[in-house]
Write a structure and sequence with these properties.
The chain is an alpha+beta fold. The protein is built from 2 helices and 2 strands; from the N terminus they run ααββ. The protein has a domain of about 50 residues. About 0% of the residues are buried.
Amino acid sequence: MAYKGSFAPVTHFFGYQGRSGHPSTFDCSLASTMGFTAGILINNNLTGLCISIKNLTQDPSVWRCGAVPILSLLEHYPK
């Protein structure tokens, strides 16, 4: 049976509003790195992945970017 309803997601991120502050230099560096990494993944036809960045406590020049399949983050409960 095919789904006949509609799908209209509405997304919003309340992170900065919740903190009531402007993004820090770290926030900007992290967002830029994540966006750049996402662009590389998409350019290589890699989808369904969640970006992973390691060494965040160090200088951004030594951060290591990767990706994790979103499905591997889900927990499977047997029937």
